[in-house]
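Predict both folds.
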Amino acid sequence: MARRKKGRAVHGWMIVDKPAGMGSTAVVSKVRWALDAQKAGHAGTLDPDATGVLAVAVGEATKTVPYVTDALKCYRFRVVWGAETSTDDASGEVLRRSDARPDRGAVETALAAFRGQIEQVPPQVSAVKVEGARAYDLAREGVEMDLAARPLFVDRLEVIAADADGVELEMVCGKGGYVRAIARDLGRALGCLGHAAWLRRVWSGPFRADDALSIETIEAEARSDALDARLLPLETGLDALPALAVTEAAAARLANGNPTEVLEGAEYGDTCWAALDGQAIAIGTYRAGLLHPSKVFRT
């Protein structure tokens, strides 16, 4: 006999305004407990000291996580000049210092090299895997690593405010970006050294900080209809994909994993989702009038 999963079969997205000092995994655990949900996951880790949008997928919405993770994200952060740290943020040990201080014009000029398709070396304290181990675990053991540069698309990087000691920036970037690495590399490029004093994720794909719930609200409304009502539909995580309307008969075939004729509305090879009266049935690849399902929703 199959073992019954603990919790309720509840589905959707809960958008949390993650506080500083709390890890992303702990936020997911809190949401799962508060909703008494069978399963949950998040779309994009935030450092423990970071704040802002952490999108938590619950139930079948976990199948849409990759499409939010791959979407553009917006960060605001402050870079403090004069010191480079072991973690590239304020929590680390100071490794080097500099008395140099750039003016705003120099910062604006230097930012041009950080836009578009760039290469970025992750921080030593990061979740990157090195021979099967996490870099942050190796760093805590005192191991110095030669981490390989990784590609990052930076759509926008602008100065929001500046003073003699640092600069506040806003960055819109793709998947896999490390704000701390931007702070470190910008400080090096300007010859003054730098690290991230704080960072906040303002939005992630379709999700905005203005619509996010605090941990206090989640705790206060735990195991209640009020908290259930705050769940966003799982379809919210498919905002970036074309939606193809289907008939009830087509929905039944897709639900069984079979390629099915769908109404036009996509290009050959597009990843799309099939909708029956606005409800997601499956995600798949569109080819010559057929949707070939790769994920099926069981709600």
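Second protein follows, with its predicted structure tokens after the sequence.
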Amino acid sequence: MANKRNTVQRQLILNAVKELNIHATAEQVYEYVHKMQPSISKTTVYRNLGQMAESGELLNVGNFYGSTHYDHNCHEHYHFVCEDCKRVFDVDVDFADILDRIKSADEHNITGFRLSFDGKCHECKVASSY
């Protein structure tokens, strides 16, 4: 895909994902940007998020609980999704040996991956123990 123009709206959307720093959904990004620029439409936010994920400016983390989440951290890494609060967290653990074993065992040409873990985050675990 060819690079899109760097519009004011596009920059606001990219900054919102970075500033929110929560693996934001498109709706969360829209709400954040709309406060700064009330004239921006949901369509503009959703379209730009999709384009930025496609071009590699953002990472489409995946769809969890009905919403696609976006990350400004575009290097290959893993995620943990809390079943209670629905937040998405980075998991910075190296599983390179697993990728090497998959490549050598099946001779696949792996060009990328998405790996997420499900469970209860620390805060929800603590809250549910009371």
